[in-house]
Write a structure and sequence with these properties.
With 494 residues, the protein is α/β, with parallel strands linked by helices. It has helices spanning 78-89, 102-113, 132-144, 156-161, 163-171, 198-203, 216-233, 258-265, 277-283, 288-299, 305-317, 319-322, 329-334, 343-352, 380-393, 398-413, 434-450, 458-470, and strands spanning 4-7, 10-12, 18-19, 72-76, 92-94, 125-127, 150-154, 177-183, 209-213, 237-242, 251-255, 271-273, 358-360, 477-481, 486-490.
Length: 494
């Protein structure tokens, strides 16, 4: 069972390790006049930037008084804050309306339809299919083509309806995809559209990295962080917030500047060094030396034997310089040994070969120019080995990429979501006890909600203790974490 969950104050990942980094409370604002969000084709008054303020709860003495991107002052609800990030980042959105997340796609499509473009000057697309299952399947297909940040927005039964595709989205290692969630209870004895976490619970075993913001500020910031962590880890992310109480609640917010998003996220079509060994093995380019030698193996009969040997020696001698030959001076020198009739093919191989160990920021798994196979039928041994490799070499890397994304964001904005020295509790669960890890996870999730419903104290211990007993969890203990004004609940195994 592989799932990751990142709230403003905790992370859960498939190894069963539960971490509590520092939480960020609502970012303070001054009393200066604020305006609504500016979009290129709208008639709204312009936003204005202000110097960054330090967090009331988490002051950082090392943070400079002035940061490059302090944010754009505005008053906005959670849906609008998330849509603001999507407008400037996404190359496409495929979504189907369901309360309370409908407005996210509506705001995005209004921006796109009025001529809006993203920060890389590309015109995005929007498509509304016949239902939530098709929406997620379509979004997954768009993300598979690579070079794009893609999103879907959904809630409640919509996520359950498309759950099959959510599992596949995570399993295919689709980077740069973020599912935007306005969390809502799933209907039971009657339909209800108010806030609940049923949909987030249902998504836990799919393998997403799940972020959960508690206000519009966190919803916007975590949306940006979600795109960043997803493109680094190649694990899709979900950015959740409470339906209505956050998605529709107007609040002061510092919106991420378009230039910040451009600099922080990077063009999804650009190439980057593979950030892990496993990614380099699966997605990394083999380099110009390998590419050219591969070409020679298939065309050896077309070469004069002496010229062929000289060319091979030339490539070997300059192996370390080939990838850096942007001026193509080595290319021109190599042509003396290449027959005239295949010089065009040789030049194309040279120009289009990529730097060794690099990959597209959002890799293309469906590419007509480089066809491959993904999603074939596998028998049990291969399927199980694939799951084990995914957990060991991709899912296990998520926490460090999330921390990296959060720290990079803090450097640029001053808004802090993680401090490594504030990790205060770890819960370890192994494979035979993984369900216990899930139950512990659910208890901590539910605690976040219950803190808003009743007084912190014995009532928590009593009710959650009964819930733990129902799950068969013994030795259920509590420990106060003063810095978070919260409790952690730890399951001890006999």
């Amino acid at each position: 069972m592989n799932f990751h969950c990142v709230l403003a104050d905790w992370i859960f990942h498939p190894s069963g390790r539960l971490i509590f980094p520092n939480a960020m409370e609502a970012f303070p604002m001054n009393e200066a006049e604020v305006t609504a969000s500016e979009r290129p084709t709208s008639k709204r008054p312009p936003k204005r930037s202000s110097p960054a303020k330090s967090s009331k709860s988490q002051p950082n003495p090392d943070l400079k008084a002035q940061v490059p991107f302090p944010g754009i002052e505005s008053v906005m609800h959670g849906n609008g804050a998330v849509a603001h990030v999507m407008e400037h980042v996404c190359d496409g959105v495929i979504g189907y309306p369901i309360t309370p997340s409908t407005e996210i796609s509506e705001i995005y499509e209004a921006y796109r339809a009025s001529g809006g473009i993203n920060v890389w000057d590309r015109r995005p697309f929007f498509f509304e299919p016949e239902g939530e299952h098709s929406a997620q399947s379509g979004a997954m297909g768009a993300a598979l083509t690579g070079g794009k940040y893609i999103s879907n927005a959904s809630s409640s039964q919509g996520i359950l309806y498309g759950l099959e595709s959510h599992f596949v989205t995570a399993g295919k290692k689709i980077g740069g995809f973020v599912l935007q969630i306005a969390a809502r209870v799933v209907s039971r004895n009657s339909l209800n559209v108010m806030a609940g976490h049923d949909d987030v619970y249902a998504l836990l075993p799919s393998g997403y990295t799940i972020f959960f913001g508690s206000n519009p500020q966190e919803a916007a910031d975590l949306a940006a962080i979600a795109y960043r962590s997803s493109s680094l880890s190649l694990i899709p992310a979900a950015n959740a917030m409470d339906g209505f109480s956050t998605s529709h609640m107007q609040s002061e917010v510092l919106l991420p500047e378009p230039e910040l998003l451009k600099r922080y996220l990077g063009d999804p079509s650009e190439r980057i060094p593979c950030p892990s060994v496993a990614q380099e093995i699966l997605f990394g380019a083999r380099g110009r030396y390998w590419q050219l030698n591969h070409f020679l193996e298939h065309h050896s009969l077309e070469f004069d034997p002496e010229a062929f040997d000289n060319l091979k020696d030339f490539l070997k001698k300059n192996e370390n310089q080939l990838d850096q030959d942007s001026a193509e001076s080595l290319l021109q020198e190599s042509l003396q040994w290449v027959p005239l009739e295949i010089q065009g093919s040789w030049k194309r191989q040279w120009v289009h070969s990529q730097r060794k160990g690099s990959r597209q920021r959002v890799p293309a798994l469906v590419d007509p120019h480089s066809p491959g196979l993904t999603g074939g039928v596998q028998n049990q041994p291969d399927f199980q080995a694939g799951i084990a490799d995914h957990l060991s070499h991709f899912a296990s890397e998520v926490p460090r990429f999330v921390v990296q994304a959060m720290e990079e964001y803090t450097t640029l904005t001053g808004r802090e979501y993680h401090r490594a020295n504030d990790v205060v509790k770890t819960v370890n669960t192994n494979f035979p006890k993984i369900m216990g890890g899930l139950h512990t996870m659910l208890l901590v999730l539910e605690l976040k909600h219950m803190e808003h419903q009743m007084t912190i104290g014995i009532e928590h211990t009593k009710r959650l203790g009964e819930l733990a007993a129902a799950f068969g969890i013994k030795n259920f203990i509590t420990k106060k974490i003063p810095m978070l004004n919260s409790y952690s609940y730890v399951k001890k195994y006999d």
